[in-house]
Amino acid sequence: xxxxxxxxxxxxxxxxxxxxxxxxxxxxxxxxxxxxxxxxxxxxxxxxxxxxxxxxxxxxxxxxxxxxxxxxxxxxxxxxxxxxxxxxxxxxxxxxxxxxxxxxxxxxxxxxxxxxxxxxxxxxxxxxxxxxxxxxxxxxxxxxxxxxxxxxxxxxxxxxxxxxxxxxxxxxxxxxxxxxxxxxxxxxxxxxxxxxxxxxxxxxxxxxxxxxxxxxxxxxxxxxxxxxxxxxxxxxxxxxxxxxxxxxxxxxxxxxxxxxxxxxxxxxxxxxxxxxxxxxxxxxxxxxxxxxxxxxxxxxxxxxxxxxxxxxxxxxxxxxxxxxxxxxxxxxxxxxxxxxxxxxxxxxxxxxxxxxxxxxxxxxxxxxxxxxxxxxxxxxxxxxxxxxxxx
Length: 391
Ligand code: ADP
Ligand code: MG
Fold this sequence. Notes:
By secondary structure, the chain is of the alpha+beta class.
C-alpha cells in the first residue's frame, strides 16, 4: 500500500480526473480518530472521549446512470465495478465490502442509490492501526452518497447507517464511537459522547502547551478480534450476575464503583476485574472531561496513565509492544500521560506531551522501541480536526 502525505486532496482529485476523465461532482472527506480516554466502554453503554485526527479519507465521486458502482482505491491501486443490485461479499478485496455495506444499508433503509456512481477513494489514515480508517471510509462514502443522490440525510443518521454497515455487512461488531467521531467531531475539541443516550458535548481541547502524540506499534493485531469478542461476552456475563442482585442493572453503565464493591464476592474471576475496568473507566472519562474544562492537563495525563494500568491489569488487553511504548514515554520528562488506545493487542498508544519535549520523546521512541521489540514505530502528532465535510 502506498501513502503520500504531501497533498492528499489534490492527489485524489487528480486521480479521479485520470481514471474517470472528468471532474468529480462531489468531493468529501472524513477523519480517523484517536480515543483520548474511555476504552472498551462504548459497547457497554458508557462514556468515551475521542477526537478526530488530522488524517482523512477522501472520496471524489460523480453519478452514473447504468446502475453500476465503479470504484478505484488509490491506496490499494485497484478498480472494481459491480451492480448496485449485486451486493455480495468480496472475499478477495476486503476494502470493497465497506462500500458495499454502506450501499446495502442505504438500500435497506429506503434511501435510493439505484443509478450508481464513479468513486475514487484514498487517504492517509493508517490502515488497521486502531485509528479507525474503517469508520473514516464508511463516513466519507455515506456522506458522498448523501450528496450525490440528494438524500437529505442528517449526519447523525449517516453515523448510524455507517455503523450498521460495519456491524451487519462487514461483520465487525464495533460500537458507535468511531463513526460518531468521524461524523460529528469539531476542530480544536474533543468529543464527549454518552454511548447510552448518544448525547454529546464538544469539549475545548487546548493544545497550546501540550501535543497529542500517537505512536503506532506496528504490531499486527493478531489476537484483537477474538479477545474483543471474549471481553464483550465477559461484560455481558457480569451484567447478568449483577442483575440478579440489582434488577435495575441492564448494562455496566448502570453500575457504580460502590455497587461493584458491594457485589464483588458474587463475581467470579475474571468477570469482576473486567467489570472493574469498565466501571472505573467511565468515572475516569467524567473526571477527564472536568480536567479539560478547567485546563488541568496534568490531571488529564494522570487519568490517561490510570486508564492504561486498568486496561493492562484488569481488562488485560495490552501487550509487550504497547507496554514498551508506554514505559518509554513515561520515562521522558514532559510526558503527562501515556496509554494504549483502541481495542488493544497492537495498534497505537496516545500520549499527552509538553510541546518542548516532543523532539526528545520521538527520539527515545525511535531509539528504544525497535531494540525492545524488533518493530519499527511510527509517530503522528495530531491536531483535533472537524468531522466529515465537503472539500
Ligand atoms: P482500523 O479501523 O483500525 O483502521 P479496521 O480493520 O477496522 O482497522 O479497518 C481497516 C480496513 O478498512 C482496511 O483493511 C480496508 O479494508 C478498509 N480501509 C481503510 N482505509 C481504506 C482506504 N483508504 N482505502 C480502502 N480501504 C480502506
Ligand atoms: Mg475499524
